[in-house]
Amino acid sequence: MGRVQGKVAFITGAGRGQGRSHALRLAEEGADVIAVDICEDIPTIGYPMASQEDLDETAKLVEKTGRRIVAVKADVREAAQLKAALDAGLAEFGKLDIVVAQAGVAAMKGKPAMQAWTDGINTNLIGTINAIQVALPHLGEGASIIATSSAAALMDAHSKPNPGGDPGGMGYMVSKRMIAEYVHYLATELAVRGIRANVIHPTNCNTDMLQSPPMYQSFRPDLENPTRADAEPVFAVQQAMRVPYVDPEDISNAVLWLASDESRFVTGMQLRVDAGGYLKWYDYHV
């Protein structure tokens, strides 16, 4: 028996990266999957989004584990699209046990600047809220909600050497911090119903978001067109452990634990998978 045997998971941003990794890890442990991704680019985001071919590949990989999947193109910014995707999955599987609100973008350096702010907030924060709230009517006792925030949410936001210079970048931090607060209060309301809600805060994760020109520019603002080779040595500044980033599978293992009954009394947690990054920013406190 797998650790989530017989459960059904609704996963956003499942076309590639962390979302695909989560879908595969949960499927390997016995879950069927309802997977969604936008499958089209967002003009203000300086790297390509997952494609329909990416989402199709996720479906093939899940099916190779022996589990079933319903994969639907949907934009998390649109609650109606998410509801339709979830309804398609419910028609196939008949229930819902796990929600993984994973979809997110990094809008730093995006142009027009305030549209980059809007697209980042709408995808990361509103998209997370949409995914969770279309799922809530279908969740019962024992269900688990997992939202992806970021180690960026835990960093000091008060140092703004260039106010207004990069609204998309600031919007990333703001959206991730507000996800953490939203889930904290949601977990309080759901606890008495036997439904758990937790947040995972990854540090740099080796995905297309990290390995992109806007992210390289954020880590090497001293260079006009930094490359991966220029930026990667600086990635390590985020972590206390001597690594430039973690891998999607490292986050998926945390998702699996929070989705499983092994964590049945864990709720309202802000779980850091950050290679000690938090330790560089804060003194000890309970």
TrEMBL record:
InterPro entries, per the entry: NAD(P)-bd_dom_sf, SDR_fam, SDR_subfam_1
Family designation: Belongs to the short-chain dehydrogenases/reductases (SDR) family.
Classification via Gene3D superfamilies: NAD(P)-binding Rossmann-like Domain (3.40.50.720)
Classification of source organism: Bacteria, Bacillati, Actinomycetota, Actinomycetes, Mycobacteriales
Protein name per Swiss-Prot or TrEMBL: 3-ketoacyl-ACP reductase
Keywords, alphabetical: NAD, Oxidoreductase
Any one GO MF annotation of this record: oxidoreductase activity, acting on the CH-OH group of donors, NAD or NADP as acceptor
Keyword Magnesium: no
Keyword NAD: yes
CDD domains on file: SDR_c
Pfam families: adh_short_C2 (PF13561)
